[in-house]
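Renewal narrative, Specific Aim 1. Our central claim is that a sequence can be written position by position from structural information alone. The example that follows is taken directly from our test logs and has not been curated for this report. It begins with the structure tokens describing the chain, in the order in which they were read.
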């Protein structure tokens, strides 16, 4: 079997990690039982670029149990959990091409590797795999694909608008059960977990600047405030800026926030939202972290150009001495702090996202002959099924409407 991982001897520990994740992912396990009993993906090849974590392991083991042949590469050079990668190869027969600390060349080589096998379905986290297919592998006959992130969906929407999208894609990121919980609750907790593991700072009393008030930014801002930080939001959207203000946060431009912040967290999906000019305004001891998918939100290149001296202080914490003598601290080289410096989202949250992924792949396989080459949202019935399974797994019952109530909301004649 072809694979490329760091160390197969780590497999036993990885197996335990996967078992721990699956214990906290009841919705996905229920879907596994459903898909495996019908062998829904028998004969299907799936190539996936995802963060190779214990939670992702639960997803690809579900696809494997349903009969698929899986080729997996990492979606970030620093996010792979090497023990999990080893376990997937040794115990599950999954072709993994990923290790923590890949170079950029390794990253793209591994992506090329998983496309050699001409998949029927692709799964992506960030859009790099989709982009590579459109650049180099246009002859692969794909049923369709999925996309996990806001960043990736933006890229795919651009392809659709320009008329170049080669196959249908389901935007898993746009499911209610994804962005309401994964983006907001999951990143809200895991980004702070990564910051604390890298720095061990006290959040309470700090001035924290959150750049971007989308679902990720909302989650981070609310949890930083819950831990005692004084939170400032930087936004370009008047609607989101107004929402942040009404949620009780200060709102200001980065040029003003840069002067007073102690901790900066980016969550925009855009480039250089913290520029080297902003960094030069920062006070001594400022900490910079990124919670967006790609390492472009903080101008790391510009920071390295202006730094008088650079040294590693702690794992995932680098000190940059600025020309004025102030020192700022960059976490995880500007990459996703929750996955580079910690373990990513809690399994309970990824249970929702990866349940959507599994059912979206099932939808593509069943409907690929009839769906068009465009970006689709997750069908509402799948979204609601995932929510129901999650509640059931948590032992929660919800109310049901009576027949009278069902009829009442269908009519228009009766009011007060």
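The sequence written for that structure reads:
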């Amino acid at each position: 079997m072809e694979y490329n991982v760091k160390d197969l001897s780590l497999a036993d520990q990885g197996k335990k990690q996967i078992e721990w994740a699956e214990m906290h992912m009841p919705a996905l396990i229920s879907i596994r039982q459903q898909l495996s009993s019908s062998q829904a993906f028998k004969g299907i090849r799936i190539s996936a670029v995802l963060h190779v974590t214990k939670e992702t392991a639960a997803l690809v083991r579900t696809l494997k149990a349903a009969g698929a042949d899986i080729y997996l590469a990492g979606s970030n050079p620093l996010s792979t959990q090497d023990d999990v990668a080893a376990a997937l190869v040794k115990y599950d027969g999954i072709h993994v091409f990923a290790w923590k600390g890949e170079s950029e060349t390794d990253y793209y080589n591994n992506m090329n590797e998983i496309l050699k096998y001409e998949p029927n379905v692709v799964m992506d986290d960030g859009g790099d795999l989709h982009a590579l297919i459109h650049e180099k592998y246009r002859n692969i006959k794909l049923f369709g694909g999925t996309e996990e992130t806001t960043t990736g969906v933006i890229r795919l929407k651009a392809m659709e608008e320009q008329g170049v999208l080669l196959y249908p894609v389901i935007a898993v990121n746009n499911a209610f059960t994804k962005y309401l919980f994964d983006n907001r609750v999951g990143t809200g907790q895991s980004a702070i977990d990564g910051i604390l593991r890298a720095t061990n700072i006290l959040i309470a009393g700090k001035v924290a600047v959150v750049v971007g008030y989308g679902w990720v930014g909302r989650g981070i801002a609310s949890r930083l405030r819950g831990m005692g930080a004084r939170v400032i939001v930087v936004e370009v959207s008047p609607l989101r800026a107004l929402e942040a203000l009404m949620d009780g946060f200060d709102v200001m431009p980065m040029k003003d926030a840069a002067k007073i912040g102690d901790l900066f967290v980016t969550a925009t999906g855009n480039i250089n939202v913290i520029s080297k000019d902003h960094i030069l305004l920062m006070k001594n001891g400022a900490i910079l972290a990124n919670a967006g998918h790609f390492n472009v939100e903080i101008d790391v290149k510009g920071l390295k150009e202006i730094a008088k001296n650079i040294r590693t202080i702690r794992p995932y914490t680098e000190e940059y001495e600025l020309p004025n003598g102030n020192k700022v601290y960059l976490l995880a080289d500007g990459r996703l702090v929750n996955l580079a410096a910690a373990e990513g989202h809690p399994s309970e949250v990824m249970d929702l996202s990866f349940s959507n992924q599994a059912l979206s792949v099932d939808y593509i396989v069943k409907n690929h002959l009839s769906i068009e080459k465009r970006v689709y949202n997750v069908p509402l019935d799948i979204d609601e099924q995932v929510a129901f399974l999650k509640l059931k797994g948590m032992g929660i019952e919800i109310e049901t409407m009576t027949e009278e109530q069902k009829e009442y909301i269908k009519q228009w004649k009766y009011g007060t």
